[in-house]
Specification:
This protein is α/β, with parallel strands linked by helices. It has 20 helices and 25 strands. Helices cover 36% and strands 19% of the residues. Strands 1, 2, 3, 4, 5, 6, 14, 15, 16, 17, 18 and 19 form a 12-stranded mixed β-sheet that branches. A 4-stranded mixed β-sheet has the order 20-22-23-21. A 3-stranded antiparallel β-sheet has the order 7-12-13. The longest helix is centred in the N-terminal third of the chain and has 21 residues.
């Protein structure tokens, strides 16, 4: 059966029963239908004095068209831990409509390791993304309105830095001219749209600890600069209060269930290639108060999502992960070894071995954070024993262990070996988490640290104007912020076609953006776009409602 057919056949339990597994009272669940609910802010606040459970991060090698199954493994491991008698919950991000109707598809797992309701999750879900889009664009509208009605803040309209957002891939909106049409429509200027998952409002919702923190962070957003280059903040435009109202319900984490009726928090959804790539702090910290083991994921490969999880999310939220699982596939090793997607079927042990250095670099990188790494080989039916053994042998040579996982086909029964290994690592107390760089390190040096220690670049290429901008932000008191790298997910370099573990490359920095509310500096590298485009044949062409009134084409 296809993923969507498996999801439709699921024997879901009422969401109140799922909440009861974690001790969430029914009156603190705000239901959206029968199978999803939000957890009330009042209940979350009541958990403050409880001891935290153990946090497990699931990450992956650089993504390939062969597919790695990171979310599938996150869900499978959560089910596996519950199956061996541990009280476990999973925390993943919400799906964006952009990739759902574009190329990548949804974000609810696959096979017999899925979160349901799959269709709802991949479409409107509980409306969080719409709320974030509305709050973001309210600020954009109030900013232009402020300029139109006299510009009391003396904004230099050449230096408006806050763009609009939409939750869709639409390259036509990357660069626009707005306020055209004469005096009644305001002052014409250049602007543009980003995708909602790249919005600073999205990042703020995912990093805020409560509503008060949310409102403060929203107020800290820099929307423009005056002629003297002093910043104009969201609170100067008086938009922070209304934005908080729009986001009040969206701040409450969403509770759903896996196919095996285990609890799953699905909340927030920043991309990891153009944002920080982690689910919300509120969802993660709530789950840690309610479960002994919490399995979460960070977007794309470990060079992006895991690096930001460690350097941004854990640093800011005081989280200390106990283990990391790196998802790899035999097929992806072959692709990194130079095999074309069409030729991945036949056994090719030499290509597997040639592609393993990509995995090896991720293992070495994660060890720099002081957290033990385990490799999960996400099994495909075409994998041969010799190919799997080649990966296991390589990982052993790197001082880690690789475990074959068959959760896609068998659910929790197929991943119990990994679950036992995770428990063993956690109980060993080996984790000594520490971020890669200190807060006080200068911003450009932070960029160099990630470029050289994670991407293995020789140097960072940045114009004098970019270095000057970073220095100005340091002088304004933002030098302590972490950096959030925006870079292609397909390679350690900025060239998406350079697979494997390349060396002898430089990191070109094209632009830097200060996200003062979120609390990081975005560093845009190479040709990465904060508004994706649709592919030649978008998934949307195959999505429809069939004669039985059922959605076809979602995956």
């Amino acid at each position: 059966m296809s993923d969507i057919e498996i999801a439709r056949a699921a024997k879901k339990r009422p969401i109140q029963e799922i909440g009861a597994k974690l001790g969430i009272p029914t009156d603190h669940l705000l239901p959206y239908g029968h199978d999803k609910a939000k957890v009330s802010e009042a209940f979350i606040k009541s958990l403050a004095d409880r001891k935290d459970g153990n946090l497990i991060l699931v990450t992956a090698i650089n993504p390939t068209p062969a597919g790695e199954g990171k979310t599938t493994t996150t869900v499978g491991l959560g089910d596996g831990l519950n199956a061996i008698g541990k009280k476990a919950a999973i925390c993943i991000r919400e799906a964006s409509l952009g990739p759902c109707f574009g190329m990548k598809g949804g974000a609810a797992g696959g096979g017999y390791a899925q979160v349901v309701p799959m269709e709802d999750m991949n479409l409107h879900f509980t409306g969080d993304f719409h709320a974030i889009t509305s709050a973001h664009n309210l600020l954009a509208a109030m900013l232009d309105n402020h300029i139109y009605w006299g510009n009391a803040q003396e904004i230099d309209i050449r230096r408006v830095v806050f763009r609009r957002v939409i939750d869709m891939n639409d390259r036509a909106l990357r660069q626009i001219v707005c306020n055209l049409g004469g005096v009644a429509n305001g002052f014409p200027r250049e602007s543009g749209f980003d995708i909602t998952v790249a919005s600073e409002v999205m990042a703020i919702l995912c990093l805020a600890t409560d509503l008060a923190d949310l409102e403060k962070r929203l107020g800290d957003i820099i929307v423009a600069y005056r002629r003297d280059k002093s910043p104009v903040f969201c609170r100067d435009i008086k938009a922070d209060g209304a934005m908080t109202v729009l986001l009040q319900q969206a701040m409450q984490p969403n509770l759903v269930q896996t196919l095996e009726n285990n609890p799953a928090f699905v909340h927030g959804g920043p991309f990891a290639n153009i944002a920080h790539g982690c689910n919300s702090v509120v969802a993660t910290t709530t789950a840690l108060k309610l479960a002994g083991y919490v399995v979460t994921e960070a977007g794309f490969g470990a060079d992006l999502g895991a690096e930001k999880f460690m350097n941004i999310k854990c640093r800011k939220a005081g989280l200390k992960p106990k283990a990391v699982v790196i998802v790899a596939t035999v097929r992806a090793m072959k692709m990194n070894g130079g095999v074309a997607k069409a030729d991945l079927g036949p056994e090719n042990v030499d290509a597997v071995k040639a592609g393993c250095p990509n995995l090896g670099r991720h293992i070495a990188n994660l060890k720099q954070f002081g957290v033990p790494a385990i490799v999960a080989i996400n099994h495909f039916v075409t994998d041969t024993d010799a190919e799997v053994q080649a990966v296991k042998d390589y990982v052993a040579s790197q001082g880690s262990e690789a475990i074959l996982c068959k959760h896609w086909a068998h659910g929790s029964k197929g991943i119990e070996d990994l679950a036992h290994k995770v428990v063993e690592v956690v109980e060993s107390g080996a984790a000594q988490y520490a971020p890669l760089y200190p807060d006080e390190m200068p911003l450009f040096q932070k960029i160099e640290t990630i470029a050289k220690r994670i991407y293995r670049a020789d140097d960072v290429l940045a114009d004098a104007s970019i270095r000057r901008q970073l220095k100005e932000w340091e002088d304004q008191g933002y030098g302590h912020l972490p950096v959030c790298m925006a870079k292609t997910q397909y390679s350690f370099t900025t060239d998406p076609n350079r697979r494997g573990a390349p060396t002898g490359h430089s990191l070109p920095v094209r632009e830097v953006r200060l996200s003062a509310g979120a609390g990081f500096v975005v560093v845009i590298c190479g040709e990465i776009m904060t508004m994706p485009g649709l592919p030649r044949v978008p998934s949307a062409e195959s999505i429809c409602i069939n004669a039985d009134g059922v959605i076809d084409g979602l995956f």
